[in-house]
């Protein structure tokens, strides 16, 4: 444990530990198995580092330091478990670290990466999506159970049970810690991307609670997507998802007013959009589109880029956005994409054309009662000049919305509906990462 560098700030240590946490846990699970026990040992090592490093300095090899401390603690935990179960038949399933034949935990196989393997494990198809999200945020994101429960507005005890059940299912299923076979890898990458997308969307447009967004969730999703992109730089859909997140999140500073009220995209102060994120996102999607099959995340990123690069709402290239949505409908048809396609058609060809598409979409029970359906209809009716029907639709949308920010916005639109429609202003539902499934 020698060779420490001079003391560093607590923030630097916190950032470093967040980066190293999945690597340490992955190394322990790869080496010893026992996901639950390995996580406990890793958490104790991280706590020791958070206590010691700010004053004593960061070791020359912080990852090895953490794995060494965690391995010692894991040995203690397994010995204790062995002692308790010595008289039980299940003792045969436990083995101390020195009995394992796998490579040392701090020696990463050259053809693998423990963080990527850990992501695959947390997003295993055997787990339901809610468990995949919770376990990913816990094991890979390094968020505590309290933080995850607060983010999804459920009691901590509920989230604890959800994470515990997920880890038990992994243990009971005998899922090995390792890269999935090549035949399964593409499907598993899709699952990882889907989980990161869901985390980002919940952060960017909260489905419930008092605020429009939860920046900690969208920021964490971007961090994990960056990490995945570093691990799989040639995967065009991984690149597309990172681009989509950056291009969408770039608008966040302008999405709410001083009082926290929602500001529709067309009314946002575009000088407040993050130009650096936009440039990075455009570069990523431009690099991804020519390489390999075009996937849904790449198309969504291209749509977001058209929004972000338009100097004003009036200058938005709606015909091109309509064309991209039609491509997206062929790749990944779902009712949320169809709803956003209707918005784009209305902006390009007039509200009546969009309302005609909504009438067809109303037969889809997956979205017929969703507040976004009523919000879009309300806005298009407003643009068409049918203000009484628009007001009624706004009020219905507000009643069905679960987020307080959306409810306030929709009620305000209903209360202040005037005889002067605001052409060129798309409804609030279009300002989000679009696929929604």
UniProtKB/TrEMBL annotation:
Residues 188-288 form the DUF6596 domain. It comes from the Bacteria. Residues 415-437 are annotated as: Disordered. Keywords: Sigma factor, Transcription, Transcription regulation. InterPro entries: DUF6596, RNA_pol_sigma-70_dom, RNA_pol_sigma70_r2, RNA_pol_sigma70_r4_t2, RNA_pol_sigma_r2, RNA_pol_sigma_r3/r4-like, WH-like_DNA-bd_sf. The keyword Transcription applies. This is RNA polymerase sigma24 factor. It comes from Plantactinospora mayteni. The lineage of its organism: Bacteria, Bacillati, Actinomycetota, Actinomycetes, Micromonosporales.
């Amino acid at each position: 444990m020698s060779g420490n560098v001079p003391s560093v700030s607590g923030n630097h240590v916190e950032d470093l530990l967040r980066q190293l946490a999945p690597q340490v846990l992955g190394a322990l699970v790869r080496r010893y198995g026992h996901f639950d026990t390995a996580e406990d040992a890793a958490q104790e090592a991280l706590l020791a580092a958070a206590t010691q490093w700010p004053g004593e300095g960061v070791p020359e090899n912080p990852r090895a330091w953490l794995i060494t401390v965690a391995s010692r603690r894991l040995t203690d935990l397994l010995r204790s478990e062995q002692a308790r179960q010595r008289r039980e038949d299940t003792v045969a399933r436990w083995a101390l670290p020195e009995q394992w034949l796998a490579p040392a935990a701090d020696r990463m196989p050259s053809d693998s990466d423990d963080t990527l393997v850990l992501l695959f494990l947390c997003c295993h198809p055997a787990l339901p999506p809610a468990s995949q999200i919770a376990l990913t945020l816990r094991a890979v994101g390094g968020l505590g159970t309290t933080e995850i429960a607060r983010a999804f507005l459920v009691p901590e005890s509920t989230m604890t049970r959800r994470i515990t059940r997920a880890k038990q299912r992994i243990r009971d299923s005998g899922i090995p810690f390792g890269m999935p076979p090549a035949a399964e890898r593409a499907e598993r990458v899709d699952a990882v991307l889907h989980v990161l997308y869901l985390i980002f969307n919940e952060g960017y447009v909260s489905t419930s609670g008092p605020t429009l967004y939860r920046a900690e969730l969208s920021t964490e999703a971007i961090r994990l997507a960056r990490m995945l992109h570093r691990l799989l730089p040639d995967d065009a859909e991984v690149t597309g998802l990172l681009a989509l997140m950056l291009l969408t999140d770039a608008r966040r500073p302008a999405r709410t007013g001083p009082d926290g009220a929602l500001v529709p995209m067309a009314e946002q102060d575009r000088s407040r959009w993050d130009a650096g994120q936009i440039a990075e996102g455009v570069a990523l999607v431009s690099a991804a589109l020519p390489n390999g099959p075009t996937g849904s995340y790449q198309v969504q990123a291209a749509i977001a880029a058209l929004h972000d690069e338009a100097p004003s709402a009036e200058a938005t290239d709606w015909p091109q956005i309509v064309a991209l949505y039609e491509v997206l409908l062929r790749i990944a048809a779902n009712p949320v994409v169809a709803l956003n396609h209707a918005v784009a058609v209305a902006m390009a060809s007039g509200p009546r054309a969009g309302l005609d598409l909504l009438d067809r979409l109303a037969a889809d029970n997956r979205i017929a009662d969703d507040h976004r359906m009523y919000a879009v209809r309300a806005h298009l009716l407003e643009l068409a000049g049918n203000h009484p029907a628009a007001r009624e639709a706004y009020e219905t949308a507000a009643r069905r919305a679960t987020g307080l920010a959306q409810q306030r916005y929709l009620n305000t639109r209903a209360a202040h509906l005037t005889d002067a429609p605001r052409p060129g202003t798309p409804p609030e539902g279009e300002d989000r990462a679009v696929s929604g499934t």
